[in-house]
Amino acid sequence: MAHAFTVLLTEVTGKTGSALLRLLEKSNVAVRAMVRDEGGVARLGSTSASVMVGDFDDPGALEEALDGVDSAYLVTPSSPEAAFRQIRFSELASSIWSICRSSPPMKRPRSASSAITPRWSGGSASSE
């Protein structure tokens, strides 16, 4: 069955990510699951999600993860770099999705997480 909507889930092996994965699978939503390493792939077990290994510090991996998805659920590991990783991810997603939005007939809905993530321009946060 073709899916009309694809969601990227990060940190999908955690408590909220795994619960959201199961909910989306039951709702017949296509899911791309990004895990940090091969151990994450094994922890996921049986899933209908398209699973990829990706690192938040690798822009190429993030671009690959975002390619073809309509929305993203972003959770980063707790670390001193977490805020930087979230901002970089949000900016990359926004740039990819704005390119898609400017090329009719494709329309990309905004993700709930990007709606609450501050946009950084000129060193200050701004909301949309």
Automatic annotation (TrEMBL):
<feature type="region of interest" description="Disordered">
    <location>
        <begin position="102"/>
        <end position="128"/>
    </location>
</feature>
<dbReference type="InterPro" id="IPR016040">
    <property type="entry name" value="NAD(P)-bd_dom"/>
</dbReference>
<feature type="domain" description="NAD(P)-binding">
    <location>
        <begin position="13"/>
        <end position="76"/>
    </location>
</feature>
<dbReference type="Pfam" id="PF13460">
    <property type="entry name" value="NAD_binding_10"/>
</dbReference>
<protein>
    <submittedName>
        <fullName>SDR family oxidoreductase</fullName>
    </submittedName>
</protein>
<dbReference type="InterPro" id="IPR036291">
    <property type="entry name" value="NAD(P)-bd_dom_sf"/>
</dbReference>
